[in-house]
Amino acid sequence: MGRALTGKQHVGTRRERRPNGDVYVYERITGYDPKARKTKTLSTRLLGKIPAGTEEMVPTRPRKKASEGKKTVVEAERTHFGLCAILEWTGRESGIDQDLLLSFGEEDALKLASVARYWLATDGAALTRLADWQIMNPLPYAYPMTEDVCGELFDTVGRDESGVQSYFRRRAERAGPKGPLLALDTVKLLVLYSTKSREPVAFVKQPGNIPDNVALVNALRQLEVLGLPSPVTVVDDGLYSQEILTHFARDRVKFLMPASNADSWVRDEIDAARDELSDFANICPFDAEVSGVKHTRTREFATVRRRPGGRNAVGETEKCSRRLYVHVFHNLAEAPEHEQRMRLELLSLKEDLENGIEEFRPSAQKLIDCYLTVARTAKGVKVGFNMAEIQKTKRYRGYFILVSNAIKDPFEALEVYRAREKTEELFATYKEGFNGNEPRRPRPESLRGRQFAQFVGLGYHGFLTKRILDLRAKLGTPEPAKSKDELGLEMELRSWLEETSLIGILDRFRCIDFITATGGKQSASWTTETTRRDELFLRLLGVTA
């Protein structure tokens, strides 16, 4: 009978000589395998080597642990913090982001805010770049804003008329009681602006083949559902006509518009106000070169009825009397400029006539007929000046009239009318900075959705522009609490703001990055360096980290 298996393992050493003479020493563990009925090597481990020509073993270094062999991976992220902080603050402080969330679903609201911020920050770059731009500039909508996503957004919003009107109503409530300013774009996109906040309140897209006065009235009807009081419609001189004046006066639409000096009744009003305008008591408080007075007049308007109804039949003349406030102004600086411009134009036309040119633009031909005398003889063309008409016209240079049925104070009327310049700037922004030059879309719903996104972007632009203008007006004002160094820094900031456009300001803060980095168990975050002027601007504007 054989011996019982003990299962013991034997530990021994084994030496292997290499061709170069080195001897490698291994530790070998062996044991008996009952199935194979023989001794097997269970494991080997290198203990060291005996270099050739020596007798001492050099032990091997211990094997590194798995954790010691791994390299520490550092993860970092960089974003344009300065620009994003300003855009985030604008959406929050203006209430635009909140109004979008209350009017649309959360996803559509975040997408609309993202497109509006992108157009504002990039001065109207193409939407094809939005997804790439979004990587370094986080937007409210966290997922990629591809061109397909934007297209679906425009389709959805274009069909959601309830959401659009709800947003208009909320913006109108924030605009306050001041009457909006009405402006007309070349593509019959009418936008209502608030003269108080300089922000757009609502917009209307109408066919381009309807008359301007009808387009204006249709746009004003929208105010009835926005909960606004009756606004004052400010019409630029390019839209002034006797027809629009008659229409507004007859329907008691509150308006403010300039009148043409070519109208005889306008010249009568100027002649009647000359002595009053020379009185220093009538100098404009915010523009010393302008004087203004108010005349209250009752004018009779006549229209021909085109539809049956009322007391008059179709084709009969309807008459009505309305009280108007005629504001007459004189600008001392404009008269010399007008005369110089007139001299240059007439001298140029005189030279063209004497050189044999016979065809002119309608506006130039009108000047020739009024102010030049042309005699054609066998020796050539003899051109003279009609001094009687020139002197008559010079009497009214520098004078202008604003007519209103709502605003009684002449200087309030002048201030409101001048606000139209800001509206015209916003329309230039709409065309150039929000892709307004490319209004065509494959479907009408998509066009309306795109126009609404542009409208939201105009709201961002208007709010941020006004806040920067308000901030600039307060800079450099001496106060007991301000040191000389603080006043100097404010004057530096004011000079920079006066010389830099809005897109230039945003580009400046695009350079301020926020960086977060993690490595192992360590993490850190920091902001790239800013100047004292930058920090003052953000602090006074109200933007916080």
Helical coverage, percent range? 40-55%
| Classification by helices and strands | alpha+beta
Order of strands across the widest beta sheet? 9-10-16-13-12-11
Radius of gyration: 40 Å
Q: How many strands?
A: 18
In what range is the share of β-strand residues?
15-25%
Oligomer: single chain
Total helix count? 20
Main beta sheet: 6 strands, mixed
N-to-C span: 89 Å
Globally, the shape reads elongated
Mean pLDDT: 79
Which regions contain 5 or more consecutive residues with pLDDT less than 50? 178-187
What topology does this entry show?
Layout: E1 9-17, E2 23-33, E3 38-50, E4 58-59, H1 66-69, E5 74-79, H2 81-94, H3 96-103, H4 106-122, H5 130-136, H6 147-159, H7 161-175, E6 180-184, E7 189-194, E8 200-205, H8 212-221, H9 223-226, E9 233-234, H10 242-250, E10 255-259, H11 264-277, E11 283-284, E12 287-304, E13 317-331, H12 334-354, H13 362-371, E14 372-377, E15 380-385, H14 387-394, E16 399-404, H15 410-418, H16 420-433, H17 444-474, H18 484-499, H19 502-510, E17 514-519, E18 522-527, H20 532-541
Parallel strand pairs: 9-10
Antiparallel strand pairs: 1-2, 2-3, 3-4, 5-17, 6-7, 7-8, 10-16, 11-12, 12-13, 13-16, 14-15, 17-18
Helix pairs in contact: 2-17, 2-19, 3-4, 3-7, 4-6, 4-17, 6-17, 18-20
